[in-house]
Write a structure and sequence with these properties.
Keywords: ATP-binding, Nucleotide-binding, Transport. The protein is α/β, with parallel strands linked by helices and 255 residues long. The protein has a six-stranded mixed beta sheet with strand order 6-7-8-3-9-10, with helices on both faces. Helix 3 packs across helix 5 and helix 3 packs parallel to helix 6. Strand 9 and strand 10 form a beta hairpin. It contains ten helices and ten strands. The protein starts with 6 loop residues before the first strand and ends with a helix. Helix content is 39%, strand content 23%. It binds adenosine-5'-triphosphate. Adenosine-5'-triphosphate binds next to strand 2 and helix 1.
Length: 255
Amino acid sequence: MSDNGFFRAAGISIQFGGIKALENVSLDVKQGEVHAIIGPNGAGKTTLLNCISRQYKADSGQVFFQGKNILKLKPHQVVSRGIARTFQNIELFKNMTVMDNMLLGRHSQRATGIFSDILFYGKARQQESDFRLKVEEVIDFLDLQAYRNRIINDVPYGVQKNVELGRALVMEPRLLLLDEPSSGLNMEETQDLAFWIEDIRDDLGITIILVEHDMRLVMDSCDRVTALDYGGVLAVGEPKEVVKNPDVVKAYLGE
Ligand SMILES: Nc1ncnc2c1ncn2[C@@H]1O[C@H](COP(=O)(O)OP(=O)(O)OP(=O)(O)O)[C@@H](O)[C@H]1O
C-alpha cells in the first residue's frame, strides 16, 4: 500500500500478441499529489492508464484505490468509485454544445433509472438541477462561460481539451487520470494548463496522474514522477531527481 493507502497499482502485466506492453509495473500515488508518468514513445504509459481505468484488462496485477481492489471492476464502476479520465485524442460529441457534453458526462453518474424517474419525478428533477449546478460550477472554474452554448466542432482545439477536462471534473472524482493533456496545445495554453492542474489539486483537492511528454510541464507542475521504458519502471521520485537518473537519460537519448 502507498504511504497513505490512497492508490497503488502493483505488478501490472499485459501483452498484446507477442508484445509485452507492461511487465510487473507498480505505481504508488499519494493523496493530494500530481504524479507524472513519463517515458519514450511506446514505453507503456497510456497502457498503464488504460489498465487503471479498465479500458484494458491487465493479464496480472492488482490496483488498489482507497483500500479496495478495483481491477475487476467495469470502466463505469471505476468512475463511480471516484476515478475519472481524459483521453489522448479528444473524445467529445463534436456536434453537441460544450454544456451538453458536460451534462452527458454527469448523466453517466445518475442514480435514478427511467422507471424511478417516472415514479419519482420530483427526485429526478432535483437530480437534473443538481447536475446543471455542478456543470455550471465547472464551467466557471475552467473559464468556459464564453463557450457554454457553442458546438464543439466550432471551438478552438485548446478549448475542446478544456471541455474534456471539464467533463471529467463534473464526475467529482477523487483521482483524475489525464492522458497527454498538453498535446496539441500552444505554449500559452500549456501554461494555462499548468495553472488548472495546480488549482485542481489545491482548490478541488483532487489527486492527479498524468501521462505527459512536455518536460517543462512535468518539472513545473508535478510532485513526483514514474519513468517507464519498454513496459518496465526505470525510476520513481521527484521530477528533478528522475530527469537526472542515468537510465532515464539513456532511454530518452538512446545509447
Ligand atoms: N490495443 C493495443 N493493441 C496492440 N498493441 C498495443 C495496444 N495498446 C498498446 N499497444 C502496444 O503496447 C506498447 C505500449 O503502448 P502505449 O500506447 O502504452 O505507449 P506510450 O508510452 O503511451 O506511447 P506514446 O507516448 O507514443 O503514446 C506499444 O508497443 C504499443 O504498440
